Amino acid sequence: MQHSESASLLNKPTVRIKIIDTRTPSVNDPGTVSRPLSFTIPKWWKVATLWFRGDEKKKAWTYAAVSVTLCLLNTLLLVRVSYAQRMFETALAGKEQDDFYKGMYQFVVIIIVAAPLMAIQYYLESRLTLEWRRWLTNRLLMAYFSDQTFFRLHIQEDHQIDNPDQRICDDVPQYTEGSVFLVTALIKKLFNCVAFTGVLWSIEPRMVFFLLTYAVVGTWLTTYVFGGRLMQLQYTCMQREGDLRFEIVRTRENAESIAFYKGESREASQANSRLLRLVVTIVRKIQWQAGLDLWKHVYVYATMLLPALWMAPKYFAGVIEFGVITQVGFAFHRIEAALSVLIMKMADFSGLAAQTERLEALLDAVVHHGHEATRIQQVPSSRTLGLSLEHVTLRTPGSGHLIAQGLDLDLPPGKSMLIVGPSGCGKSSLLRAISGLWTSGSGIVRCPNFSQMLFLPQKPFMPLGSLRQQLLFPSSGPKLEWGQRHGSQPNDKELLALLDDVLLSELAEKVGGLETELEWGHVLSLGEQQRLAFLRLLLHQPALAFLDEATGALDENTEASLYTLLRSSCQTFVSVGHRMQLIQYHDLVLECVGKGHWQLQTSAEYQHRRARR
Ligand SMILES: Nc1ncnc2c1ncn2[C@@H]1O[C@H](COP(=O)(O)OP(=O)(O)OP(=O)(O)O)[C@@H](O)[C@H]1O
Which Gene3D superfamilies does the record match to this protein (predicted)? Predict the structure, then answer.
């Protein structure tokens, strides 16, 4: 029964799916730029050396040194294998029993030594990859969350950095894994090349020249024809994977709104279009990889019998022993594999190049602090308790739409101000500028230290965690880290009393206590979330509070009682709101009068003017 249900779900989509867009990438898409692979090497080096020059460089170099040593031992063992093989094959052909068993014995000894060495090498390379990944992910996360970079990337005008989450979670492990795999492969091949060139040179030097020419021409052709193209396709694939995942996450985040609008078929079409764009890119990648595979086989099989063909006349003339033919073949193919590493692993190299491009761009973006010629300057100070704006000109990011032109205002401590104006005139944007989120423009904002200010947006943020953690937010521990009550530890009684104050007296009991963990953003109504956010304000008692339509979802009576409470616990605050009843709780009104101009007046003046109008 279950099986047939799931089968029917797979066979019959319950929403009608219309394909919206299966465009091929635009020319501005960074993934469409096909570049030579060599272009990426300095970028790879830049990202790779971060760990090797950072605070864990000792650990990094130790892992790397041990791995390289093991690669060297591995190669030496292989050289020994080639001699042991030569010995027992010659003994076999000449029916010399003693030499045959001697060769066998050497072989067994080599295997006994090699087996644990290979296991240790695998373990060390895996640890090296993991440690590197941990360090790099941690650095990126720190940079992403510091200085509100996550917000800056989000509003970035040209949206250069697609899917930063995917870059951190997927590209970093693939980059470190790919780098360790390819670098150790290169080192092994280099050692093999040196060691077996010695062997081959001592027997047939002309064969070494032939191999060198063959590999150089082959590598150049492969890189020229396949390298850049495969890298570009890998890049686009990653981008498309991220876009598809983002669409599904976006649907989950907005599940209720989409369900109300019955917008599922549009969202499904959108997701399906993204899937199709991904599939189109993957098909192209498979086609190019198939071409590369064909070329690799031609390249390898063309020289398969060459060592035997080359050496056979000497063997028939009795100049060399039988075992020499096998040893030459062994050495020839080892050197060929070493010199052709770029050809054989072209798909891996191009994948690593794509991951490098994405990580390097992210690293650049997270350490980059905007290149506006002039910026609004933030001057937070523990001595400032009010707020002052000195000649602030503010523009929206990207479009540069003017929000405020040369705005001067002074909000002394103990005073409150209401920002009013038509929808879209820039009330919330002013708060964004004061908090330092938007910096496009000029002028100076003087305010208290950030730990003395609290911003309440219209849609409060509900972090994962218990009810207690919701109440204590933005403080993360049991002791308050923000506001006037910095360092104090509110007890349960106090928290329950505050819940009572914000008219959420039954909440703790209803959900099963302060330690209950729920998806708070989904289980609480917007009005309940706003009251809970108000509680945070009453609890922390910041020197300066900002409320951006923070009571917009509440009825007028509840709003009035919350503002009455606010006036008793927080002296200086700035609100954004549309309801006229808010005026009575504020001393000043900042009104948007259009074209970037704002007028500051007392509440009484504002009401008087409104009445006249
Ligand atoms: N991330 C953004 N990038 C560019 N422009 C933006 C961005 N966010 C908002 N804007 C624009 O800035 C202008 C001011 O927006 P803002 O949210 O400050 O208006 P508001 O006065 O608070 O509106 P409302 O009363 O409807 O909440 C609007 O024209 C809006 O389209």
Answer: ABC transporter type 1, transmembrane domain, P-loop containing nucleotide triphosphate hydrolases
